[in-house]
Amino acid sequence: MNTLKPASAMQRFSIVLQRDFNLCFFLSLSILALYPDPEHFFSQFRNSPWFIYTIIPAFNGIYTTLLALFLNRTVSRRNYTRNFYSADIPALIAVSFSAGCLSTYITLSEAATYVISVVIIYLAYRNIKQFAALLTSLLRPDTTATIKDLGAFANFFINLMISFSVINLSLNAIHNHLNIEQAFNFGSGLRAIIDSIYFSIITMTTVGYGDIYPHTTLARLLTGAECLTSYLMLGIMIGIVSRGITVTPENRQ
Length: 253
Prior knowledge:
The protein is mostly helical. The chain has helices at about 10-30, 40-45, 50-75, 90-105, 110-140, 145-175, 190-205, 215-240, 250, and strands at about 145, 245. A two-stranded parallel ribbon has the order 1-2. The chain is globular and about 65 Å long. The model has no long low-confidence stretch (mean pLDDT about 80).
């Protein structure tokens, strides 16, 4: 009789990394956005690079970990968000702490911005592959979604938003590195991260205030792809919800 071998620590970490890293990264960026004047904050430590590159990332990693654990315990264990719950706490701590540290480095180094962008795009690609299978089944005739399916859809949408935010930030960093016109009229340092998240949110929710906009042809093409993707996702979401929602027994508990 064949028995399944328990997953190793590395395999469990890989599962949590793929599912939760982008969400933890978004939490860490949200924490950074709480700084009232980020450029002034970092300017105070210009003569202490060890503090900027070690202590500040570590503190942000700790804050991100605490927030991720709090949400995992108090929110994700509830009925309608149970599919976000992670029972592998050590892996979640490692992933959330890493995300908190890396989100700080993205403001300090262009090279770090490029590397992190590749990681986030890769994880988004993996999530897209998984979500495509779910979406195919949901689009079949006479198929209704469950609460868990809607949670997976929301998680996928958040992953897309985070991915576009980091891609926009990377494109802006590349333009700055090449000494050409800014791709977007983002600020600098932590302010650029805040502006990038804000731009993706108002773009993907079709609000579009117009205070931040693409300047170059490549940036306009990227924004166009972001708009079309968000319209497609929102349209599919509305179509799925209009069919009705199936409440499973576990959701009634």
